[in-house]
Every structure is written in C-alpha cells, then in structure tokens.
AarF/ABC1/UbiB kinase family protein (Thermalbibacter longus), 484 residues
Amino acid sequence: MVTPRIFFPRDFLHHRRRVAEIVAVLSRHGLGWLLDQLGFGTLAVRERGRLRAPRLDHRASGAVHLRMALEELGPTFIKIGQVLSTREDLLPAEYISELARLRDRVPPVPTEAVVQEIERTFGRPLADLFCEFDPEPLASASIGQVHAARLRIGTTVVVKVRKPGIAEAIEEDLAILAQLARVAQRRAPLAEYYDLVGLVDEFAWTIRAELDYRREGRNADKLREQFSGNPDIVIPRVIWERTAESVLTLKRIDGIPIDDVAALDRAGIDRPALAQRAARVVLDAILLHGFFHADPHPGNFAVLPDGRIVAYDFGMVGRLDSHTRDSLLEALVGVIRQEPDRVIDALIRLNIIRHESERAGLRRDLQHLIDRYYGMALGEYRLHEVVGDLLTIMRRRRLVLPTELMLVLKTLMMHEGVGRHLNRTFSPSPSPSHTSGASCSSDICLRTGSPGSPRRPTTASACSPSYPGASTGCSASSSTRTSR
C-alpha cells in the first residue's frame, strides 16, 4: 500500500503514523469526499489525485467501501461504524444497511497471551483461578475473546478477556478523533448542522465503557436485579471474584439460539408465545425500568427448554430518565391521535427542535406521515417502516435525536425483527402497565383497546409491572447456545 504524502499540522504530530494510515485507507477506498466534508480535503493530502484514487472494487458502492475501510482500520473504527448503524437520523438507508453488516469477529490472539493477561490481572497462576480453562475460544471479537472454564467449586463459567494492547490502540485513535472533531467543528460544512465534538465525545464514552468489563458486569447485575421477579428472563450471574477491568467471568448458561426456529420447534417451544414474552421483557425494561439491553440481535439471546429467555453480552445498555420516557410517550400519543403539534411539543421538550421557525415545515412532514398510516389497526403497523419514515424526516430537517432515544428505537426495531422471525404475525405493543409505568409523572397514558385497535389516551393509573412477583433461578441446560 502506497501511503499518501501528508501535511502534519502541529495538532497531529504525535500521531503522524496512524493519521497517515487512516488517510491512506480512506484514499484507497475512494472516500476523499469524507475528508472534504470534515474540512480536511486540502489539509490532509498534498497529492489531491490520491484522494480520488480508483476504488479497489469499481462495482462496490460508496457505502460498501465505507464499511470495508472501517473494517480495515480496526477496532475503534469498527465500533464507530456499529454506532453509526444505529443512527438512521444521520445517514441514508443504504449506509445504515451496509454498516449493520460490520463484522466484529477477528482471529483470536494466542492462548498464551490470554493466560498472561489473566495472571497479570489477578496476580495469581491460572491454575489457582480455574480448575479447567479451554484454550480454544468460544468467540473472538476485536476487543476481547471468550473462553469456557470451570471454577474449583465446580461452577461452569465463561471468561471474557480483553486482548492485550487493545486499550492503548483505541486510546490513540480516540485522541486523533477528538482532535479531528475540534478542528472540523471550525471548518467543516457538516459543523453547521451537527455537534461533531459532542458526537465524538459520546462515542469515546461508549467505547471506553466497553473496554471496562467491570462496567459490563455492573450492567448485568442491574438487569438481573430489575428482572428478579420476572419468570420469563434469565441473566447470568457475574463471578466478581474472577472479574476485573480486563476480565469478566459469568456463570455459563446454554440455550437454543432464539433465531433457530427448527431447534425451537424440536424442543416444543411455542414460538408465538415466546415472541410475546420477549416483547414483554423488552418493553418492561424500556418503559418501566428505563434501563435496557441495547444490542438485542439474535446472537445475544437464547431459550431454555422451559421457555425462559437467556440474555448475553451486556456491554451496550440504554438508559431513559422519566422526562425522556414521558416525552417519548407523548410523541407516540400525538402520532396515534393524529396531532402533529403534540409530537412537535414533545420534540421541543427533548431539545430536538430548538427554533420555533422549524415548526411549520416539520408539522407538514408529520401530517404527511400520519396520513400515510391513518386508519391502520395497531397490528398492521410495521414498526421499522414507521420509524424509518420518521427518521427520514428528521434527517431531511437536519434534526438529531438524543442517543438514548435512538437506542430505544433501534432496540424496538431489532426486537420486532426477532419477533417476526418467530411469528410472522407478531406485533409488539405496550400493555397498560407499560404506559402507566412510563408516565407516572404525566397525566396521560395509553390503554389497550380492543384487539387490533389503536390505543387511546386516558388518565394514568398506578405503576405496576406486567408480570407477577415470582422469583426465578438460573438453570443450565445442554442445548446449543452458550453464554459468552
């Protein structure tokens, strides 16, 4: 690979080799326009022709080359792409679809390096920590890899280990991105519409949180506690005596992959009922608790023989405060009651709309959206279509949703996909307890009407969960899916 000749402003001298690599990869994939949009078209490369260099594959689209470039640039940029794949308010559908294909699977590091990291972390030989440790990883991603093990007391566990040196490499990339954002905020055309520094800061916080496995352990504990009375969901227990910043140990719970329809049928699992139980769990987490698993792709969920759902991988979670939940519910009521001004008022409270001058154009767009779905029964809605139309409006109006709200929408859309895979007629919808629980500080909630009918606002009632206060235990099985 030929590296372009690059100007190095004082801001980037400490990272000149990595900056050169980033520019070279973008250039090879014909992504000079991205540097232009960020205000670095003339600053970065002396030979302008290199930014317009032929792509590696002329048949591939710009979205495909962006994905390929991010994969080539490594863990930090893969994570950027994964975060951007949730931001349909920022990118067109073609890019969202392509970035969603980003693969965070890379070859594992040698077992010796993993063992050294574990022993360095705990200051003890591996044999003192685990009586068995499988040298073959169950899974390997860009940041860490997972091994099966057994504690001396006999408990089977999974051990997630951060790859040596990965934190330092990511910190260098974050430092470069932070400086790029500060410079771009002053000169980039995009800066007129987007807070580039804020977006990078938010991303940096997210990826640093994923680097600290203690935080992931606390996320698992919090979800385990809030669902302690729910008979439908199992959260693996964290083994804190074997957990640190770079090592996470969880009780191993195997199950049937939630998207393996044939295996579920062989096990006698009622798939429509499973889809509804999963919907209750997701909506409980978002609307009652305001704390939810924000990466609900099929690989992160399995099903026990008794029908309970097992969740895995707690690195990405979402949080909603009562103000945001109430405003989200208010916007939903506005759509259902065909009141665009109510939706706009909710967006103003969420600080999405900052100027009254934006109201007229947005009201017109929302009215068109409402008209499109007018008269449809609740079960006929396709959530991903409605949300997609709404986000198209947001993107056209250059309105940016808060990250936590985008996580909610993405979580609901991903869950709808899983639900429809289990049951083609699946339609997620809140129960009265969800809506009253989400808006106890508000004077509105949605109550369930007759089957297939829209919900209508009424006065909020007492907050109560949608499941009885029964306890549940963590039972293992010999099925095919493994806690990672």
Remarks:
- Residues 217 and 379 are 37 Å apart (CA to CA).
- The first strand starts at residue 132 and ends at 133.
